[in-house]
Amino acid sequence: MWFDVVLPLSIGLAASSAVMTALWFVQRRTGNAGIVDVAWAALVGLLGVFFAAWPAGIPWLRALAGAMIAGWSLRLTAYLCRRVVGHPEEGRYAELRRRWGDNASQKFFSFFQMQAAAAWIFATPILAISRSTSPPPEWCVVLAMAVWCIGVVGVSLADRQLARFKRLPEARARTCREGLWRYSRHPNYFFEWVHWNSYILLATASSFWWAPVLVACGLLYLLLFVTGIPPTEAQAIASRGDDYRDYQRTTSPFFPWPPRTK
């Protein structure tokens, strides 16, 4: 048990910390801390594949879990690369740099290490699945794959709809209400959370079934109350004012639901 669980976890955490340390040096040179988002998405996938490849558990289940986290990671990493690489530093990181002043370098190092730990934590559901000694029920496998597809396709669709809206000349200072954004103020967050629930279903026969449950619950809390909706909506109100306040009055904050009439 130590060799199959503690050892890969220790290697994964050390590797994640080393990668983020190297990228901290990169952001010092480029002045763009947004690279941490790209690295986080890539690290979750790489750590997940590493955990799935460790020789223990059921081979087909390990392969399925590894493929699922790899597919999710590739999509998100590519999306973030297009948004970050070659562009100015995002406003939230520029604001942190301004607020931290002379301590920015030290604080960004701590921030990068926190993201290393977060990537490691988000990869643990794959380790939990891969260490199952018996397979989950067949219906759980089928449902897990369906939930994964709904989550990943939903996020991709929401991102495309928002990007298409932003290219419109009349989109400036207005709020996207097209497609999925008509039914949720944050469909990208919602479907991202849906995706993480797929691993709960695959881990039903694992002794570590609680790992994907904690990740999904923790992500939901962060999205609803900490790093997701609150800062995103504060920025939206600052930039779009009454138009976004009207959007808040009529549209569900997270779970998709038909818009309310005024």
Can you walk through the features of this model?
The protein is mainly alpha-helical. It folds into 2 domains: 1-131, no CATH class; 134-262, no CATH class. 74% of the residues lie in helices and 0% in strands. The protein contains 10 helices and no strands. The radius of gyration is 20 Å and the shape is globular. The mean pLDDT is 95.
Gross morphology is globular
Distance between the termini: 58 Å
Q: Which sequence of SSEs, written as H and E, runs from N to C?
A: HHHHHHHHHH
Helix coverage percent: over 70%
How large is the radius of gyration?
Answer: 20 Å
Q: Give the count of helical stretches.
A: 10
Strand residues, percent: under 5%
Write the layout of secondary structure elements.
Layout lengths: L1 H29 L4 H19 L5 H26 L6 H10 L3 H27 L7 H29 L20 H16 L7 H17 L2 H12 L1 H9 L12
Any key phrases for this structure?
262 residues, mainly alpha, 2 domains, 10 helices, globular
Short description:
74% of the residues lie in helices and 0% in strands. The chain is mainly α and 262 residues long.
